[in-house]
TrEMBL record:
It holds the Pfam family MFS_4. Keywords: Membrane, Transmembrane, Transmembrane helix. This is YbfB/YjiJ family MFS transporter. It comes from the Bacteria. SUPFAM superfamilies: MFS general substrate transporter. One of its GO terms (cellular component) is plasma membrane. The chain crosses the membrane at residues 51-71, 83-104, 110-129, 136-156, 168-186, 217-238, 250-267, 279-296, 302-324, 336-355, 367-387. Gene3D superfamilies: MFS general substrate transporter like domains.
Length: 391
């Protein structure tokens, strides 16, 4: 037990920084790095898509593994090891040009990301519920927006100084102190007993999948596929359509980051005021328009609008869905969070794989975004079937 109670601001900040580390400096730093690694000759475009798939597979495996550790003792035991794996994989990426090793290391990095992304928000959410401040839970995802901005800055500022494998150094070195401080803070949490509630619930407990929650799960699955295509390939698309020297190669990811940063606060507030279900419907419409813009508009404007709309919406979909699901299934706690993240991760895995298959059949990267648009349209339709809990 800590000698002094932790403040809500400090707990949320520590959780946000851990998401910054594993998501911003782990997963999404690869998006602005991809066109540079291809231009350096380290990877072919098809290989870059395959590596993205390995990372998303790791994310799915990590989320599934995290289900067994979703207890106070499990979280304390496993999270430091997951953070260590994250740092180790990034450090090793600075030392290799082998496609096999890069793929293996990105798989391991994805596993660490999935574990942390399940356990840390679940821990903070349950603690905030015990403090009567559950509406503040969405603010933890500010770390992802900050991570996007930081990853964009690190890659852009080191562009002329580093090449090939060495481009991973900034993310690797910064992860160590940020991850260390953040976990030291969260390890002092006095966890609400509600986190262990699933063990005490009778065998006939409410199922995760029932007629109330199924449309929400289906919508979230579509959202995973819908957002991951532009979030993985936007700078690469800009490089292919506008040229590798176009400012939009870097600016597209910077726009994503700048749009994502305030979006967590905005969607959190809108959901609290108008209802998470209603605001989530609007969220999916905006994401759909963003993907369609990249497909249908001239490249310069389409990529810019896609960066703005998808970057400003995807985190809102995550926090609104997590909170809405908990209101539909109030007894499920971390088990519910793990299931949602595993589902989201599973459909994200499909995205780069579809792009890779499309290359084999002559489908361009831009045309591959139609898969994402169709998935987001399906998400919108499914959300219309979710009950409005305010009535």
């Amino acid at each position: 037990m800590p000698s002094q109670p932790l403040s809500i601001t400090k707990v949320v900040s520590a959780g946000a920084l851990l998401l910054l580390v594993v998501h911003g400096l782990g997963r999404f730093v690869y998006t602005p790095l991809m066109p540079r690694l291809v231009a350096d000759g380290q990877l072919l475009l098809s290989q870059a898509a395959d590596i993205a798939s390995w990372n998303y597979l790791g994310y799915l495996l990590g989320a599934l593994l995290a289900i067994r550790w979703a207890t106070p003792s499990g979280i304390r035991r496993v999270t430091p090891w997951a953070l260590a794996l994250h740092c180790l994989t990034l450090l090793c990426l600075t030392q290799t040009d082998s496609l096999l090793w890069i793929s293996t290391l990105r798989l391991g990095n994805g596993i660490s990301n999935g574990i942390v992304f399940v356990l840390v928000p679940a821990l903070v959410l349950e603690w905030l519920a015990g403090e009567g401040r559950i509406r503040a839970s969405g603010l933890i995802y500010l770390g992802v927006g900050l991570g996007l901005l930081l990853s964009s800055a690190l890659v852009s500022l080191s562009d002329e100084l580093l090449a090939g494998a060495a481009r991973w150094w900034p993310a690797a070195l910064l992860s160590i102190p940020l991850g260390w401080w953040s976990w030291l803070t969260l390890s002092r949490i006095s966890i609400s007993p509600s986190l262990t509630a699933p063990k005490g619930i009778p065998a006939g407990r409410q199922s995760l999948f029932d007629r109330h929650s199924q449309p929400l799960f289906y919508a979230y699955a579509g959202a995973g596929l819908g957002y991951i295509l532009p979030m993985t390939f936007l700078p690469m698309l800009a490089s292919l359509q506008l040229g590798a020297s176009s400012p939009m190669v870097s600016q597209s990811w910077l726009i994503v980051a700048l749009a994502a940063l305030p979006s967590t606060w905005l969607w959190n507030r809108l959901g609290s005021q108008f209802g998470d279900r209603n605001v989530l419907i609007v969220n999916y419409v905006l994401q759909l328009f963003g993907v369609l813009a990249a497909i249908l508009l001239p490249a310069q404007w389409g990529i810019m609008l896609c960066s703005l709309l998808v970057g400003g919406s995807f985190l809102g979909a995550v926090l609104l869905t997590q909170r809405l699901a908990r209101s539909l299934q109030p007894t499920q706690g971390p088990r519910l969070s793990a299931a949602l993240i595993a589902l989201y991760g599973g459909t994200q895995l499909i995205g780069p794989w579809l792009v890779r298959q499309g290359f084999d059949y002559g489908i361009s990267l831009q045309a591959s975004l139609w898969f994402g648009a169709a998935a987001l349209l399906a998400s919108f339709i499914c959300m219309l079937k979710v009950a409005d809990l305010r009535h």
